[in-house]
Amino acid sequence: MQEAEYWQDFRNWMGQKDGIEPVNFFTHVFGAKTSLKNIALYFYTKFFLRARNNFYISSLADDIEIIKMIGGESFLNDNQVSDTPGGSNYFIVNGVEVNARWTRYIYLLTRIQKEILLKDNEIWVDVGPFYGGLQGLVKKYVPNSRIVLVDFHHQLCRCYIYLKTLYPNAKHIFPSDAKKYRNLKNLPPNSFLYIPVSEFELISNSNVDLVTNFASLGEMKREHFDNYMKSNLFLNCKKMFLVNRFVSAPFYEKTYDTDLTILDYLKVKRKISYFEMFPIHHYFLIKRKILGHSNYRNFSSPYFEMITSIK
Length: 311
Hints:
By secondary structure, the protein is of the alpha/beta class.
């Protein structure tokens, strides 16, 4: 298997991709995996799916302007998708390489940096890192941070491939050695610890500097949600940064099999230092069938972002 094909397989699986993006002349016509099928897809989309393509481009342009608004323009310019492992899936908007997931990561990076949520040598636990894209970005600016990734085994494999490629000299600690670090303060500087969700209890009593979750808490059953939110790790962390849906499963579109709402996140007695609408993808429209007919629609529930600290 050629290297380009390997990276594409690791980062963009069926249903596990960098997000919907417009067809891109550079990657579809001149990309590493150029084929007659890709070229045909490019011209088919340009001529027959023009409205959809334009919606995608407009949404990405909105995301870029929002990132600039909060002071993240330099992060956009300094972190091009094609410079990252497996970064073949992107669209160029105003000279910047982006896709739906990458604009989200750059926005979150900007918030973490501007709010000084993580300093060098501090400990950050993220639940649901996907392939580790945000961790790779933050590590660039906080090089001696100690980062703990909690996810399913297959996602941790993706994270390891991505982060080991970016940071070969960092200490990468596998789940088999996790028991040595029940107290996360024992983690060495410049390290990554990979924790399967089934072994979260190993670290659930640790005191850390930052805990984050972006979207996946709101996709869980209440039992699993409570397992995280009521853990000492979540309750006692110095800072917590969450982005999740106001209503996980609105009555008109039961997106997830759960009854979680914003009220469940507010039950935790912590000081709220920042609360707002999550603006990235806010204006995004996708064509799907809802209420019996297909049309372009936004998400069934908007997302909030919230930063809290211990009182």
